[in-house]
Amino acid sequence: MRINLPNKITIGRLFLAIVFFVLLSLHDQKSPSTTLLDVSLALFIVAAASDALDGHLARKNNQVTAFGRVLDPLVDKILICGVYTFFSSSVFVDAEGVNVTGVQAWMVVLILGRELLVTGLRGYSEGRGRAYAAVFSGKIKMIVQSVTAAVVICVVAHADPGSPDSAAWVIMHAMVWLTIGVTLLSVVQYLIRSKDILAEAG
Predict the structure, then answer these.
(1) If DSSP codes are grouped into helix, strand and coil, which group holds residue 93?
(2) In the 8-state DSSP scheme, what is residue 160?
(3) % of residues, the chain, pLDDT over 70
(4) Cβ distance 14 to 75 under 8 Å?
(5) Cβ(153)–Cβ(41) under 8 Å?
(6) Among 37, 143, 150, 166, who pairs with 157 as Cys (CB 3.0-4.6 Å)?
(7) Mean pLDDT confidence for 65-80
């Protein structure tokens, strides 16, 4: 199978995500490195932004393929689920034992569960020869999750940890909760859209 340009961009995003995760794994909230987080943030922004680029090129050049419809959301899921998993991990726990990102384990389970649900529905639909492109709420969800992740990294890197009630920290926590709300709404819309598929599967 010939790999077109949009799919090459998607594959490149996967490699960027891997490098991004390696850098995040080196972060230690007990002795944080602003430079490390800034580089991580730059990689994340490039990886997230390329999601819009490959989709635009695929539609513009009529290069939408079943491979791309599966690979593109898969890489998105790896990037998003990975970064939120890191946010809830010990990597972002400070010397007092507090996770500074505001992302809790149950939130990650919700995000991961949503992605697994949509992946299952997409795989079933594609397996039956029917396209299962992303819906509008899914695109909004990805944007909100990505912006929130960037905000979290930026705030953790640059905001004063001694002022947890400052505007930066308040905005960060608000964005995290907005992400959870948008994720839940996305689940509902996908379930409504897939009611015929679920009826067939049953």
Answers:
(1) strand
(2) -
(3) 80
(4) yes
(5) yes
(6) 37
(7) 78
